[in-house]
Design brief:
InterPro entries: AmpC-like, Beta-lactam-related, Beta-lactam/transpept-like
Organism: Streptomyces noursei
CATH superfamily: DD-peptidase/beta-lactamase superfamily
Protein name: Beta-lactamase-related domain-containing protein
Number of helices: 12
Radius of gyration: 18 Å
Shape: globular
Pfam family, one: Beta-lactamase
Number of domains: 1
Distance between the termini: 19 Å
CATH topology: Beta-lactamase
Order of helices and strands: EEEHHHHHHHEEHEHHEEEEHH
CATH class: Alpha Beta
Largest sheet: 6 strands, antiparallel
CATH architecture: 3-Layer(aba) Sandwich
Strand order of the largest sheet: 2-1-10-9-8-7
Structural class: alpha+beta
Length: about 300
């Protein structure tokens, strides 16, 4: 396990466990990838003067012949997980489309071909298919692949040299109890929702950069959910009772979680290479933020839908 806290840019990091790791060791961060996808797409939209309430079909016209979803569905609604799309495209279905450059758009095509289960904006529901669409929009706006757009628009400008989709010498092997798991390649079609490797030091940097870009941050942290939804959610982040932004990520052999408290200039993150670690990760992050907010977030972080 590796953990880190940044307060007004001053960092503290720590590690624990029998495997030697540092703040620069790379773990799979699973659904924390959505933070990167959402922030990069928002930056691309801002640079090109495109509003968040633009219908998705206008930005992905190649999908129009197969479009069965509500034509009013917007970029904001897919990033906020309030699209109402029928949740019919699972990870295995997306992975079966292969690792070619066109696979992600085909995954997005399957998503919109399935249509809507409910009216957009009516209810929050966590669905990775929303981020297959988001990654496809980012690629289309950038005239390249999703990976190329993420690299050019966020990873390189923010100096995130260790964060990426491929393993490296810094990659930490995941474990399920006493069983070491192989380092498997993550399907390209699923990457906008959960494919990145990253480190505590670079995730702290991401949090610091988000806190520094107040316009971007305010857009991300504005709730898109209703009072009767299962949780309060912005764009890629769950929102806590005292203004916290939090989420977790989970893949076989890895658990990750992150908290931002914008009004206190606070970022905290924990990465672990043990499948059963999430309750402990959640308790640790909750304990770190509790003196600043008075809230116990352990259950909320642990239960988050990733």
């Amino acid at each position: 396990m590796a953990a880190g806290v940044s307060t007004a840019g001053t960092r503290t990091t720590a590690t624990h466990g029998r495997v030697a790791v540092t703040a620069d060791s790379c773990f799979r961060i699973a659904s924390l990838t959505k933070v990167f996808t959402s922030a990069t797409l928002l930056r691309a939209l801002r640079e090109q003067g495109i509003a968040l309430d633009t219908p998705v079909i206008e930005l992905l016209p190649d999908l129009a012949p197969d479009w069965r979803a509500d034509p009013s569905l917007t970029v904001e609604q897919i990033l906020g997980q309030v699209s109402g799309l029928r949740e019919s495209v699972d990870g295995a279905t997306a992975a079966a489309l292969g690792d070619g450059d066109g696979g992600l758009l085909e995954a997005a095509r399957l998503v919109v071909r399935a249509g809507n289960e409910r009216e957009p904006g009516a209810r929050w529901s966590y669905y990775n298919g929303n981020y297959f669409l988001a990654g496809s929009i980012l690629a289309a706006l950038s005239g390249t692949t999703y990976e190329g757009a993420l690299q050019a628009r966020l990873l390189t400008p923010w100096g995130l040299a260790r964060t990426g989709f491929e393993t490296s010498p810094a990659s930490v092997t995941g474990w399920d109890g006493t069983t070491e798991l192989p380092l498997l390649r993550y399907p390209r079609t699923r990457r906008p929702s959960g494919g990145l490797w990253s480190s505590v030091s670079e995730l702290l940097a991401v949090g610091e950069d988000l806190l520094a870009d107040r316009d971007l941050l305010e857009e991300i942290r504005r709730p898109r959910t209703r009072s009767d939804d299962p949780m309060t959610y912005g764009l890629g982040w769950a929102l806590g009772p005292s203004g916290q932004m939090y989420l977790n990520g989970r893949l076989p052999g890895y658990r990750a979680a992150m908290v931002l408290i914008p009004d206190r200039d606070h970022v905290s993150v924990v990465l672990a290479n043990q499948q059963s670690a999430l309750p402990a990760v959640a308790r640790l992050l909750s304990a770190v933020q509790r003196p600043l907010t008075g809230d116990d977030l352990a259950e909320a972080i642990d239960d988050f839908a990733a």
